[in-house]
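Bug #77: duplicate submission created two jobs. Keeping one. Sequence:
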Amino acid sequence: MIEMLVVLSIMALGAALVVPRIGGGAGVSDGDLKSSARKVATGLRYARDEAIARRRETTITFDLADRRFRVSDDTRDHELHPKIELKLYTAQSDLVDERRGSIRFFPDGGSNGGRVTLAGGERKVEVDVDWLTGRVAILGGGEP
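Kept job's structure:
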């Protein structure tokens, strides 16, 4: 009986050490990170569809500090999880300042290209925009 208690104690101690590492860091769950990546990808796809449908350039502007984005001609701000860290890689001409920048989509479906990186602790997901086709893809933990 004592041996069984010792084994259960060791298992409980091991679980207490392992479970926080599986759940991730910085207060951002895997689900929150993936959900935010899908939200960004959806916004980018919407901006591309708008550019094609309206036959004019459409931009999606990211506010990295406030963790939100907006598609041109849309009055809504789309907010992301407050603890997710955002980075934007885009053309130099589309960076407003260190906190804001845009990705542009053209009427033919193409784009200036770019990447939005969402990070929570050591985990990260990248949403990539192909410059030639405007195709949006989630890399590193989301949909293809």
